[in-house]
Amino acid sequence: MASLQHWVVFLLLSIFPVVDAGHPDWEHARFSSPAWLFIKPGAKYQLWPRSTIPLCYDSDETRDTFHDILWAAMRLWYAAGLPESFRLLEINRLACIHNPFESLYVEGTRDVLASDIGMPLISMRSGADQPEVDKPTIKVFVDRENLGWTIKSAAHELGHAFGLLHEHQNPSFWGPNGADKVFRFYCMHLHDFVEITEGMYEDDVWGQTGVCRDIISAEEIGFSAGDWLPEVATDVFTPHPWWAHDSMVDWDSIMLYQSFSDSIDEDHIPVLTRWDTSTWESSWTPSTLDVAGLEAMYESPWANPMLPFWNDIRSPYFALFRQFSHCA
């Protein structure tokens, strides 16, 4: 017979479910539109309330450099049909100080373009009582010889900031364990392949959890394959069936890397090709399906939750979630 303690744990887990990161809002979600890949709110991220991203700059110099670039990047999205209810909102420095986890920090860099996806949940990677805290950040730099490229790259990063993922990382387009299906992935052509894999056993590179087959393994060591391999299927939403094929790829997506990105030779040696080995160039404007994906995401029932997800430190139920999500 089950002990009283087991019954208590059972009842509490019934009240505070841990499946899908502890929130039931999307359990019966369905999508009928043809193509996109975006975050599953509550798994690692959540959506920006009212589709508005409050912006903070790490310095006045950063603001002077990137303010106009970011707004020009947003105009690319508007020109593609994104409603102006999606917006950037610059807030004052005091608001940034008092609300560091509800705003996106713009950080100027020398050569890095990157953005957190959506509004990240406050990190819980350290101790249960004192979780590590990371501010949402978008990292940008300016190619002064090609401002057009800079603006288009910023538009790609804003797609991430609002919640879109890379089109080519849709797990529907890949076989089991990162195997080729719709695309052919040439991991050995990545610019950092030799450096990363030096001294590794073959299975550590090409095995089921190898760095050229598993996104988590690649990301843990900072390998660029993490920007190419399929996302973990349980962390994302896509309307594609698992038997997706070439015609379902949005080849016009601004969230799709070109074939030669990150390559040891970005003019001649591809990293990713179609199954027939043909290649494609970058699309530097948002597609209609990119816009449709954002609209679908922010029109969903969980777009503006009344309370944070239970696995977010800002939730009043966070302590209970932490206590009972690890029960054995």
UniProtKB/TrEMBL annotation:
Keywords of the record: Signal
Residue ranges the record marks as coiled coil: none
Signal peptide interval: 1-21
GO MF, one example: metallopeptidase activity
Top-level taxon in the UniProt lineage: Eukaryota
Name of the protein: Metalloendopeptidase
Taxonomic classification: Eukaryota, Fungi, Dikarya, Ascomycota, Pezizomycotina
